[in-house]
Amino acid sequence: MVNMTLLRIGHPLASPGQQRTILEENSEFPAFSDLLSECGTPVLTARGIDTLQVNVGRVCNQTCGHCHVDAGPDRKESMTIEVAEACLDFLARANVRTLDITGGAPEMNPYFRLLVSRAHRQGRKVIDRCNLTILEAPGYEDLADFLAEHHVEIVASLPCYLEENVNKQRGDRVFQRSVAALQRLNRLGYGMPGSQLPLSLVYNPVGPFLPPDQQRLEADYRRVLRTNHGIEFTSLFTITNMPISRFLVDLMRQEQYDVYLRKLVEAFNPATVEGLMCRAMLSVDWQGYLYDCDFNQMLDLKLTTSRPNILHLDDETLQQLLHRSIITGRHCFGCTAGSGSSCQGSLTSSGSSSTGDV
Ligand code: SF4
Ligand code: SF4
User: Fold this and answer.
1) Strand partners, 289
2) C-alpha of residue 228 to centroid of ligand 2, in Å
3) Ligand 1, pocket-test mutation among 170, 172, 206, most atoms within 8 A of CB
4) Domains in the chain, CATH or no CATH each
């Protein structure tokens, strides 16, 4: 299957404003803030910043059908060295423990290796959100070795252990190339029992469903990948698809948008609110603008502080960021449904859905 970015085909929902309108206009569904109030948290606030998640741009070697970034080979947005340097300064100034690098395919940014090596030298934990196929792409032959040398934790997308489902969502032969990349990472020690090189896999549903129970699915992944391909990994993260960008378009095309949003709202789990990832992270885009999370970034919900760009942060703004009020909307139901969802997988072990499609 060949997908194209919404931007390239001139789709109206390439615009974050149009996506926000669809999400916020439908009065059939409650506002996210109403359900927060009902569970005694009228305003979601940050509790410091453990993680700086840096989205280095929209350029990617794939064009997956569900992509919330609308990334692809035709996208040009890519972080400059000035913004990359400002991110590294921020890690030191705010004493942030983890640098989490995402995209697009983050490794395609020219300053990806600078970010990794300098953050590693600063003693930070570095996470690479990797689509796996980039490790097998021409020109990136030494990438896996570079990641291992810098003790980078790899969080890799593999939405299913079955070839057909992966290729349907992510493109032709993506499964085969992902398997080759995982085997290469295993040979370097990634994901092997007792290894200091963590390799986590990310599952996200291939359709309008909530993820199944994370623990049970991890056991299935482990059994099938080990038996069929000799692959080992550290852990599996289940992530709920956000009803934004290309997944939103897909839902609307299949007339499943209302059905899916209702599913998310009805599965609202108050126990997830405490651990929502936005409460301990800050997200920065390729131009340096700041957001509460990558989803807010894609909806262009910038922070409303007086200096909302990492290039111009003063100490006063930095202090405000630590305890800021978080901007929420109906898309946030994607984080609170069932067991909850974050960049590190589910948030609770209870309340999970069993309607997954694996
Ligand atoms: S690999 Fe990731 S960033 Fe690239 S198109 Fe697929 S989902 Fe989007
Ligand atoms: S989408 Fe999720 S992580 Fe982002 S602000 Fe909403 S609840 Fe927080």
Assistant:
1) 309
2) 36
3) 170
4) 6-336 (3.20.20)
Burial 198-233 (b: 16+ CB within 10 A, else e): bbbbbbbbbbbbbbbbbeebbeebbeebeeebebbb
CB 276 within 8 A of CB 347: yes
The structure's pTM equals 0.95
Q: Whose CA is nearest to atom 6 of ligand 1?
A: 64
Q: What are the pLDDT digits (tens) for 52-68?
A: 999 999 999 999 988 99
Residue 64: CB within 6 Å of ligand 1?
yes
* Residue 246 neighbours by CB distance under 10 Å: 25
In 3-state terms, what secondary structure has residue 55?
A: strand
Q: What is the pLDDT of residues 130-181, one digit of tens each?
A: 999 999 999 999 999 999 999 999 999 998 898 988 888 888 889 999 999 9
CB atoms inside a 10 Å sphere around CB 323: 10
Question: ∠ CA(152), CA(109), CA(144), 5° rounding?
Answer: 35
- Count of CA atoms in the C-beta half-sphere (13 A) of 122: 23
How confident is the model at residue 87, as a pLDDT? 98
CA 22 to ligand 1 center in whole angstroms: 23
Sequence-ordered list of residues with C-beta below 8 angstroms from that of 190, at least 6 positions apart, any chain: 144, 148, 154, 197, 198, 199
Quote the tokens at residue 311. 């290039």
